[in-house]
Specification:
This protein is 62% helix and 6% strand. The chain is mainly α. Among the domains are: 128 residues, no CATH class; 108 residues. The strands form two sheets. Strands 5-4-3-6-8-7 form a six-stranded mixed sheet. Strands 1-2 form a two-stranded antiparallel ribbon.
Length: 545
């Protein structure tokens, strides 16, 4: 879907008027789409080109996290922090999606990497540059990305009794750059699109939190417990070491020590993102991703300070995960169903709309690999902790820096071995859900004068036009990310109702209907002579003649 928005931007050249399916799209700001449009212009409109932008953004986030950890805690632990972010399964998965999440995380990571050492060293120029990068976070996904990171820094300075002078951590050139980069696009669109400011500020934020949106989409939010579980699972096991660091900082009241200010900022950011999202009535699985770089940084410090306890804990944890994967593998993936129901947005939407969810049996090969990887990691850590090298009585004392780093390296290697499981899992999801097979069938069969209709919100088949080259009209799809665009004059012709479809179906023109809805909930039950042409990935393609 996001690649299609970028393709339409490349055709229009107007970042103030993003469109999807020809309808104004105002849910996200333009940075991802501008970068994607540039990449498509250079590399062509291919999947690989589109995926390159969020993948490179993910690598930028990893590099910025490693660099910041190296500045704060040494090169070895910097490398560990980078690997910790890379091997956080939730982050790795979103790095393979064409979505704005990793670009958002990258801008936050770079902003913190520039700002935190700068305020520690009194370098106002670099601090101003960090604030400017936070402005780009507002252009990547959300205006809160520009405002909340400086707030976390300010709270840390207030706790340390060092809030003044403000220019030490909030230099005015940086504030000006943050506001200019972060909000100029929003102001320009508000001037050219009546209702945009209300939609963005009130409907998409205030009313969204209050669960009273005028333009809701079909997303099904998680409960607070589900969100925290999914966020923790996506950052497993690094969140354990990060939690140990936060507890240690609180016990020593580290906010009173100027040298600890960057770590207090990171702790406030990680905890704040997770807690505030959990307290919000509207939560989606990826809302925890902005906390992951801070979790990786805190985890690296945690391993440096308490290697042996963490090694023992992770050995037991990996053993439990390995056993769980083996049990799920032996049960044809059945225990995975509940995880998918909580962690996967599309599965929740499908369940609410009467569509088919993912078959857990798709993940059986992945579970087998996971069982082996986690089992090997548990054995490796156990040998490291309990082994008896020559000349040493008893187990290895993991209090030393090298021993702690060795245990952390085994943990990182285990997670690196698990990453192919995530990639294979995403391939299984694509095989069961992608719009590509139906779109290619439509491209092969539909004539230039035929009418194409998509039933339901177009984001449920957002790549339909990308692969088919045909722009559908949308039936019963106003409850959508295009809900606001549907109210604008240029969006009216893109949406049709069942009376229009019935008339078109009976006319002399050939009409194609793409639907992912269950047959008893679909408009196809009222269409005379509907012929099923193809069925794939949870969708069906019908034609009237």
């Amino acid at each position: 879907m996001h690649a299609e928005i970028a393709r339409e931007l490349a055709a229009s050249g107007d970042p103030l008027r993003l469109t999807l399916n020809g309808v104004r799209y105002v849910d996200k700001p333009p940075l991802l789409y501008v970068l994607l449009a540039g990449a498509l212009a250079v590399g062509g409109a291919t999947e690989a080109t589109a995926r390159m932008v969020p993948a490179l953004a993910a690598l930028v986030a990893v590099a910025a996290t490693a660099w910041l950890a190296a500045r704060l805690h040494g090169a070895a632990w910097g490398a560990l922090a980078g690997v910790a972010l890379l091997t956080s399964c939730g982050f790795f998965a979103y790095g393979r999606y064409v979505r704005p999440e990793t670009l958002f995380v990258a801008t936050l990571s770079v902003g913190f990497a520039l700002l935190l050492p700068a305020v520690l060293e009194g370098h106002r120029g670099r601090a101003a540059l960090g604030l400017a990068v936070f402005g780009l976070a507002a252009l990547a996904k959300d205006p809160l990305g520009a405002l909340l990171p400086p707030l976390a820094v300010g709270l840390a300075f207030v706790a340390a009794g060092r809030a003044r002078p403000l220019a030490a951590w909030l230099p005015w050139p940086g504030v000006a750059a943050l506001l200019g980069l972060g909000f100029a696009w929003y102001a320009a669109v508000a001037l050219t699109t009546p209702g945009f400011a209300w939609y963005t500020v009130v409907d998409n934020h205030v009313l969204n939190v209050a669960r009273a949106r005028r333009f809701p989409d079909e997303d099904v939010p998680l409960s607070a417990l589900e969100f925290l579980a999914v966020a923790a699972l996506g950052a497993t096991p690094w969140i354990v070491a990060a939690g140990a660091t936060v507890v240690r900082l609180v016990r020593r009241r580290a906010w009173r020590e100027p040298a600890q200010t960057p770590w207090i900022v990171l702790a406030l950011w990680a905890v704040g993102v997770l807690v505030l999202t959990a307290l919000s009535p509207f939560r989606l699985p990826h809302y925890g991703l902005p906390a992951y770089p801070a979790i990786a940084l805190l985890a690296a410090r945690g391993w440096s300070e308490s290697g042996r306890p963490l090694a023992l804990m992770h050995a037991g944890f990996f053993a439990a995960l390995g056993a769980g994967c083996a049990l799920a593998w032996a049960s044809d993936g059945a225990p995975l169903a509940r995880v998918l129901e909580a962690a996967d947005v599309a599965t929740r939407k499908a369940a609410a709309g009467g569509g088919a969810g993912l078959d857990p049996a798709l993940f059986v090969p992945v579970l087998a690999i996971g069982a082996l990887a986690f089992g090997a990691g548990a054995i490796g850590l156990a040998l490291l902790v309990l082994g008896r090298p020559r000349g040493v009585r008893g187990g290895i004392a993991l209090s030393g820096r090298r021993s702690a780093l060795a245990a952390a390296a085994v943990t990182a290697a285990t997670l690196l071995a698990v990453l192919p499981c995530v990639a294979l899992g995403l391939e299984a999801v694509a095989s069961a859900r992608a719009a590509k097979p139906i779109a290619l069938e439509l491209a092969r069969r539909a004539g230039p004068d035929d009418v194409v209709v998509h039933e339901g919100p177009i984001e449920n088949s957002g790549a339909l036009e990308w692969y088919s080259g045909r722009r559908p009209v949308i039936l019963d799809g106003e409850r959508s990310v295009l809900g606001f665009g549907a109210t604008l004059p240029q969006g009216h012709d893109a949406f049709v109702d069942r009376a229009w479809l019935d008339g078109a179906w009976r006319s002399a023109r050939r009409v194609w209907l793409v639907t992912g809805r269950a047959e008893d909930r679909s408009a196809v039950t009222t269409l005379v002579g509907a012929r099923l042409v193809a069925s794939a990935s949870g969708r069906r393609l019908y034609v009237n003649r």
